[in-house]
Design goal:
seven-stranded parallel β-sheet; alpha/beta; globular; 10 helices; about 350 residues; three-stranded antiparallel β-sheet
Length: about 350
């Protein structure tokens, strides 16, 4: 297939391009080389792909890119929680407007091929919780007063009791709780609406916490693994918010790239969790990375960010059953490799 990959010079996008080229696909790559994540010339561009610098917000760029493609792998996105709500226009601009321009160009071309979208676990908000008395419940956003006194756990909305966390599946209610999350869910809705009208197939890959080589470093938009890794390189202790007990699923970028190829080559449509199925706490990750780097042990500093959630980790069963995808790189192996992996910028 001739596949358009957006965000092709990025952390995940460049890994996807490598995976597709190695599998014999023809790749047309585009990236706007945003200075937040690219602080110099593009690195790691695959010479076997056709690479273009361009901004998807520009209709002319989109019109040129979609000519002759059989499928689209839409990785381009402004990622991370951001600095504060002042980032809202940039997130909507780069994520939702750019997606709309791309879809309009595909519509003009009467494209009815397959679209794979890089979505995120952040569309769920909090994960799945169970109360011993009331069963599965959906807690609201954590209260700032509770967080201020160090009560970081979500509570039962009925009895205020303790909740146990469970893997979330793709049928869970969607509850984006920050600007980035809202834009990712809107992207899913836009692409789904396009496919309903024009036809073709659509897979929204809800990435969990992706880490690995080529992550951007030293930016407030970087993932937590990259932030901790950068601290270790400076000989500093990683600063872990709350009590470090936040549960996440850390999945390696090479597994994520393989999931994209599986989704592009499949026939099924829908949303899919892309995760390892092996959850760990943020403190687990900080400890493992510090040990692998011979860096100071992490410093649990308390505090919080209101847009963060406490526990969210996934059931990857649907991706295994329908896409034939299972993660192959375990947590310990992945963290040891990440300790010395090349980072971006």
């Amino acid at each position: 297939m001739r596949i358009l990959v957006t965000g092709a010079a990025g952390f995940i996008g460049s890994a996807v391009v490598d995976e597709l080229v190695a599998s014999g696909h023809e790749v047309v790559g585009v990236d706007n080389l945003h200075p937040v994540s690219h602080r110099g010339p593009a690195q790691w561009l695959n010479s076997a792909a056709s690479n273009t610098e361009g901004d998807l917000r520009d209709p002319a760029v989109c019109a040129a890119l979609v000519e002759g493609v059989d499928a689209v792998c839409h990785q381009a996105s402004m990622v991370g929680l951001g600095v504060d709500f002042g980032d809202v226009v940039d997130y909507v601009d780069h994520n939702d407007l750019a997606t709309a321009q791309l879809l309009r160009a595909l519509h003009a071309r009467r494209f009815a091929g397959r679209i794979v979208l890089a979505s995120s676990m952040v569309v769920y908000g909090e994960g799945r919780y169970r109360c011993a008395t009331h069963g599965v419940v959906r807690p609201g956003p954590r209260d700032a007063a509770d967080l201020d006194r160090g009560d970081y756990e979500a509570h039962c909305p009925i009895c205020n009791g303790f909740l146990s966390s469970e893997p979330v599946d793709e049928d869970a209610p969607l509850d984006p709780r920050n600007v980035y999350a809202a834009t990712k869910l809107h992207q899913e809705h836009l692409v789904a609406a396009y496919v309903r009208e024009r036809g073709g197939g659509f897979a929204a890959l809800r990435y969990h916490n992706v880490y690995g080589p080529r992550m951007p470093r030293n930016t407030p938009y970087a993932g937590v693994a990259s932030i901790f890794r950068s601290a270790g390189e400076r000989g500093e202790a990683a600063r872990v918010f709350e009590d470090g007990g936040q549960t996440r699923d850390f999945v390696h970028v090479h597994d994520v790239a393989r999931a994209n190829r599986r989704a592009l080559e499949a026939d099924a449509s829908g949303a899919f969790n892309i995760a390892s199925g092996d959850p760990h706490t943020v403190l687990d990750m900080a400890v493992a990375l510090a040990a692998a780097m011979d860096a100071p042990p992490p410093d649990v500093v308390g505090g919080y960010r209101l847009g963060d959630v406490r526990h969210v980790f996934a059931s990857p069963a649907k991706a295994e059953r329908i896409l034939g995808f299972t993660a192959s790189i375990g947590f310990d192996e992945g963290m040891r490799a990440f300790a010395t992996a090349p980072l971006r910028g």
